[in-house]
Amino acid sequence: LCCMLWTQTLAVSFVSLVHVSSGMRTPTRSSTSAATLFTLRDLLHRIDNSAKRELTRDPRSDELYPNKKSRESFGHYVEVKPTPLPEPFLVASSPEMARTLELEPDECDKEPFVRFFSGDCDVVSADSEVRPWATPYAVSVFGQPIFAPDPFGRGNGYGDGRALSLGEVVTRSGERWELQLKGSGTTPFSRGGDGRAVIRSSIREFLVSEAMHALGVPTTRALSLVASSSERVRRMWYSADDRGRDHPPNTLISERCAITCRAAPSFIRVGQIELHARRLMRDPGPDEPTKQEARDQLEALVEHAISREFTGEIDSALALPEKLIKVISIFAERQALLTVSWIRVGYVQGNMNSDNCLLSGRTMDYGPFGFIEEYQPMWSPFTSDQERKFGFERQPMAAQVNVLSLAKALIQLLDDNDPDFEDTIERIQEAVQDGYSRRLEELRGEMRRSKLGLANWTVEAQSKIWPELSTLMSRSSVDYTIFFRQLATFSQSEISAAAGSGGEEAAAALFSRLEMSFYEAQKVEETRGEWLAWLRAYASLLSQDPRTEAERQQEMRMASPKYVPREWMLAQAYDAAEDGDFSVLQELMQLLSDPYAEQPELEAKYYRRTPAEALMKGGISYFS
């Protein structure tokens, strides 16, 4: 697996791997700034919907259009008319994402853009007919197939409940970007919901998807955020003084409706593959596709996914079993890289079910996520995950379960009479189990090496330095982001002193650099002696590094961001925005566009531990 996908050695910085991996193809900073940029009208003319061309539409899509009511759907997609926001206004847009689409950023401020990305497709009807679509999919929770989300009991009524794909835009360089509205009204898969998103959740997704891109983490992107001046909905949320994690939100509040336009090369999920595999696995019921139709639809979806997300990595001339092996192997690589990237920046997805797991290996569907502040190995803000299946350090295991879910779905296409069947199954099993585990350990080791600033990931670093550090951090109430950023401030002379004759006094000087990351003074005193001993051992390893101080510190800073979108920061932005003040949002957009930079003018405000008033606060420290 490693030979097939990677040519880089582990001496390369972990952060750079995110951008150079052929498996990820994560877009880097836009290179179109000097090229001609276009209008919204031009963008619409560059729509080429390969999904509609290559896949099967729901057979009753035209008959039941606009398809706003809950029902079972068959085929790969169903066309749905969005419900436009009344009196829309632009809250924010991403100039970088606009340029990536070769769209002039100033276009985002114009009325046609605001109306179109608020769900009003009629505004462009003179230039282009846009018929958005919703996609059905299935779900497995930690590998367990679930049918409960479907109100009809057969798995045919679950899917995009408030999201619609507007179209696939193709740039001059051949990049394909699918644009999707989130919060654009009901679909056949809304299951009794209103299909709306609110400004709170929309600001979170808009800010964090763009922040994750700047952090170098594979992610879907955000183009725009539009809100309504008049439409509001009621949602359950937490009261201002709620400090109890053991219950769901219990206060009904009124919130402004909003729509985010998110972008990705595709939004093909593991759950989509699972849906069509499940149809193939069972006898068809009324209106369901026949066995042959189910097989054809599953195979068509797989071929479409290969063309969208595995171009250049899987030869179209290969036999189907070989293609499936490669899809699973590459997907395993992507999931390992994704979850290690999450851990590097302190991100917890919260919900890692197969229905929000993209074949591309990008982070998506920002819901019950959070950035870890006080380090706890199994921390998660998601109160529904009481077992912490998706806890911080456990995320790579959850990702491997999604690899297994994909593999179980894809093997339905194999012919068990094929003489190579057993060999194919063994190779798939190797990719899911041993291949994934090997690659995970390599990537995780490289990530830890770069965060510690070590020249090599030695046996001592693996077996002593890192395990002892993790234990100390979990016992000391330390801020994950600040701690690793401060670790990069150690000078060569300080390290040499702590590693040599300087002893405890020199180690104490290093420790003083870290003290701003601790939450509880008592725990600092209780563990101080252990920290000094660890720092001396760590300094001894660092002193063997042949690189210059500047080279080491630069690598450490690029592995450990100074700023991440902490939940209390996001809450400040969406609380202010609810009242019509978007200054906090704009400031955070600026801050998070360059999260590795020092930005001294914003340091006092945002390079800090969780404020006391936000600790254990409902909707900030945890949420359902």
Features:
624 residues, alpha+beta, six-stranded antiparallel sheet, two-stranded antiparallel sheet, 21 helices, 42% helix, globular
If you had to describe this structure to a student in words, what would you say it looks like?
The chain has 21 helices and twelve strands. It is an alpha+beta fold and 624 residues long. Strand 6 and strand 7 (176-182) form a beta hairpin. The protein is globular and about 80 Å long.
Structural class: alpha+beta
Record field, number of beta strands: 12
Alpha plus pi helix count: 21
Distance between the termini: 38 Å
The poorly predicted ranges are 1-33
Question: What is the gyration radius calculated from CA atoms?
Answer: 25 Å
- Residue-averaged pLDDT, rounded? 92
Bulk shape:
globular
Q: Strand share of the residues?
A: 5-15%
Considering DSSP H and I runs of 4 or more, what fraction of the residues is helical? 40-55%
* Major sheet summary line: 6 strands, antiparallel
Question: What's this, in brief?
Answer:
This protein has helices at 2-5, 14-20, 40-45, 50-54, 95-100, 111-116, 199-215, 270-281, 291-309, 320-345, 395-410, 421-452, 459-476, 480-487, 492-499, 503-514, 521-542, 549-559, 567-578, 583-592, 600-606, and strands at residues 78-79, 88-93, 133-134, 139-141, 144-146, 163-170, 176-182, 197-198, 221-237, 251-264, 347-348, 370-371. The protein is of the alpha+beta class.
SSE topology sketch:
Elements: H1 2-5, H2 14-20, H3 40-45, H4 50-54, E1 78-79, E2 88-93, H5 95-100, H6 111-116, E3 133-134, E4 139-141, E5 144-146, E6 163-170, E7 176-182, E8 197-198, H7 199-215, E9 221-237, E10 251-264, H8 270-281, H9 291-309, H10 320-345, E11 347-348, E12 370-371, H11 395-410, H12 421-452, H13 459-476, H14 480-487, H15 492-499, H16 503-514, H17 521-542, H18 549-559, H19 567-578, H20 583-592, H21 600-606
Helix pairs in contact: 7-19, 7-20, 8-9, 8-11, 10-11, 10-12, 11-12, 12-18, 13-17, 15-16, 15-17, 16-17, 19-20
